[in-house]
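[step 3/7] inverse_fold.run input=structure_tokens len=238
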């Protein structure tokens, strides 16, 4: 099977036309896990994606390339190989919150606007909520979450968008928070993450910007340490 597929992949990889017309470029890491345990462990890769919108406003979302390594150097080298015409055509460069990729964009895509992609921003908020949940769990019970315990039972609910929760899930969330006054921290953290997420669900860009600016101006002063750290991270990237 591989002998039949490999020539096609080599041919596609050599086709430079896939880089034409890219005005919005995304970059992200990818970790390849071998199925065969006898082979080496996970391999880090950097992936480049075409996020340009077509005439109907739809994002192409085409994988352009994968290169070994997860570093600013790997991304900068790939950008350098694309040539001036490609780099000057890129207007927006989306990335995850990784300083190495940002450095490569600064060096190679000087005219592009660097933007943190929505997925990774929301992921930062979700991760902060989970950190608060685990800390409060340990502070109140002295151990990691176990089946049947209030906070452990809502960990999936805390990762969801508020608008997607069913009535039953809302009842479970309320019951878990009300089980102990210390759980209020978890609820506040969840509300903060929902506010951050709402910037991407706003009715227009102006409203989304107002929400994002309010988040950047307030989160870093939150008495919940994990949310304050998230706020500092967002302010630094702002």
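[step 3/7] decode complete -> sequence:
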């Amino acid at each position: 099977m591989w002998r039949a597929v490999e020539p096609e992949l080599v041919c596609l990889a050599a086709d430079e036309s896939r880089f034409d017309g890219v005005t919005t470029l995304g970059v992200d890491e990818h970790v390849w896990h071998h199925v065969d345990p006898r082979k080496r462990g996970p391999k880090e890769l950097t992936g480049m994606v075409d996020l340009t919108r077509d005439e109907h406003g739809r994002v192409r979302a085409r994988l352009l390339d994968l290169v070994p390594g997860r570093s600013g150097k790997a991304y900068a080298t790939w950008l350098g190989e694309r040539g001036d015409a490609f780099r000057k055509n890129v207007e927006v460069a989306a990335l995850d919150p990784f300083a190495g990729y940002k450095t490569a964009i600064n060096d190679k895509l000087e005219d592009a606007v660097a933007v943190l992609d929505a997925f990774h921003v929301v992921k930062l908020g979700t991760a902060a909520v989970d950190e608060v949940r685990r800390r409060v769990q340990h502070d109140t019970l002295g151990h990691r979450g176990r089946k049947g315990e209030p906070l452990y039972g809502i960990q999936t609910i805390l990762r969801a968008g508020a608008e997607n929760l069913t009535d039953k899930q809302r009842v479970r969330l309320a019951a878990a928070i009300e089980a102990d006054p210390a759980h209020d921290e978890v609820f506040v953290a969840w509300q903060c993450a929902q506010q951050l997420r709402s910037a991407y669900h706003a009715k227009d860009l102006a409203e989304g910007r107002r929400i994002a600016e309010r988040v950047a101006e307030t989160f870093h002063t939150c008495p919940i340490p994990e949310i304050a750290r998230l706020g500092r991270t967002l302010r630094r990237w702002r």
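[step 4/7] annotate
Residues 119-237 form one domain.
The chain has a mean pLDDT of 92.
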